Amino acid sequence: MKKGQKLYLQAKKVILGGNMLFSKRPELFLPNQWPTYFSRAKGTFVWDLENKKYLDMICTPGPNLLGYSNKDVDKEVIKYLKKGNFENIIVWF
Which of 40, 44, 49, 81 has its CA 20 to 30 A from that of 71? Predict the structure, then answer.
């Protein structure tokens, strides 16, 4: 059994659904094969904890328009994070 599946079984004991994201539960796709946890994501791809690459055909939540780790979005987020928490609160509200 892969590392991600072992963690998922443990997580299901303490987290409702095992990962808080209905769209990423392996039971919806390939039980015991689809990764529940990802080590990284870029564009439309995700990598599991064993560094195996998958095409995320569903791309939820959020990246369905821009993909994961969109360079322009990341750049803007980092710009505001560097300004500190207090200013970010004012900007967002």
Answer: 49
Domain residue ranges in the chain:
3-92
Residue 25 pLDDT greater than 70, yes or no:
yes
Q: How far, in whole angstroms, is CA 45 from its chain's centroid?
A: 11
pLDDT (tens digit per residue) in 32-41: 777 778 888 8
Q: Give the 3-state secondary structure of residue 4.
A: helix
CA distances from 54 to 39, 50, 51 (A): 12, 11, 9
pLDDT value, residue 51: 93
Report DSSP letters for 58-90, one per residue. S--SSTTTT-BT-HHHHHHHHHHHTT-HHHHHH
